[in-house]
Amino acid sequence: QPLQITGIGAVSPCGWSRLELDPQALPNPPETIDLAGGGRAWVRKVSPRTKPLEYVEKGRFRKIAAITQFAIEAAVECLGTRKFSPDGTIIVAVSSGSIACTEKFFEPMSRSATELPCPQYFPETVFNAPCSHLCAYLEHSGPSYAILGDSTCAYEAVDMARDWIGAGVTPECLVVAAEEISPLQVAGLARHVPVASPGNGSGGILF
After folding, report:
1. In 3D, which of 115, 169, 102, 178 has the Cα closest to residue 142?
2. Measuring CA to CA, which residue among 167, 174, 118, 120 is closest to residue 143?
3. Which of 85, 100, 104, 204 shows the greatest Cβ crowding within 10 Å of its Cβ?
4. Measured between alpha carbons, how far is 117 from 120 in angstroms, rounded to an integer?
5. Which ranges of 111-152 would DSSP assign to H, the alpha helix?
6. Who's near 73: CB < 8 A, 6+ residues apart?
7. Which tens digits make up the pLDDT trace of 116-167?
């Protein structure tokens, strides 16, 4: 049985959502830039988003990383004005972006007593953070799942949504893939996959 898409959302590297980006980019005339690997490309320059995120100053969201903000913004755009079903399932796919959460706490926590909970010693809590915060923002206490993998893990998340909806496990599924560039990721890709071009942002689909 084919999936029905009931909502889509995306967040660009500069922080603008899918609906907000076009009005910012289209009035600007296209420019050409030189690519690091040779050649040229057409681009439209936009300014970084400065609109404050209302939820960032509330409770547990005060210290969230950019990858989590991207995930939440994409999910909000997917849902629009509707509320996510309490029986629905949330799947968040991430690659290396959540390492930023570790870097954020690494230095001060590594100087503290080793008995303190630290992402350095419990990496699973770091990679689950975007999914956990998204569920908290949506006040969702139902099923949720975080996938950690390479750039194809977003497709795996879609496959999971299809299987679970088809099997009647969940009535609807919100799939979000998010990424945040980290220096470790950039260095690793430059060394082993020089043709790769990492970027910030997220995308979401509501099935």
Report:
1. 169
2. 174
3. 204
4. 9
5. 123-127, 129-137
6. 9, 11, 15, 17, 53, 202
7. 555 444 555 677 888 888 998 899 999 999 998 887 889 999 999 999 999 9
